[in-house]
């Protein structure tokens, strides 16, 4: 029997439909301990979410429109809302009756980028539309839409590959969220380990065993791949490309680019036939990861 034939959607119970809350600049909501599961997504403004799931370290993630957050039952969280402008977010509480064929909730990701998975954005809008109606049919439709959304949210995201380990999903999600918020930038091994919830040494061993490089090098290879694509597909100067990759100076970018690609950026741009901009990430088996992360970046 194929894996598709054995998939079973989760079953959920929703007490009310999707609701919308508005917050004044600088407002704080929490700390609170969740008695159920909650989905939240920002419509306007921004926030920093501090949360601690059971038996996990305290984490902080930036939230903005375009990100979908899932908080598990028992999580303690606190929202620090945008200090400059009012913020609005949609939210939906639910109980998990049966996870179906999803992994245990402890392995579920906390944040997904809606721009990477547009179908999630469509389902969020559908849930928001259903929330304006209180009849039984809307309630049932909310449960059905939420079950499908959860299945898409939890299963391996686009680009990391079917069956990707939970730590890799967490690493890729954390980088995607960070880059979507700040632009492509350097991320240290310590920051990655904190985001994944493991020690620096353990994460280094995991990444090295799977990809033959360290966590920080993994991130840099993807940054440089972005630069290589920009050199081929834009009129941006080397200095502009360097900034778009998160390098402080074109000299540092050129030095690192030459180390990885074997030639400086200018020669890479002029060489015919054109070298593969994804060559180094492909060699390390990182092409699916790079494609996933670079969907949140812009060229030029």
TrEMBL record:
UniProtKB keywords: Activator, DNA-binding, Transcription, Transcription regulation
HTH araC/xylS-type domain segment(s): 174-271
Classification via SMART domains: HTH_ARAC
Keyword Methyltransferase: no
Signal sequence annotation: none
One annotated GO molecular function: DNA-binding transcription factor activity
Name the UniProt record assigns to this protein: AraC family transcriptional regulator
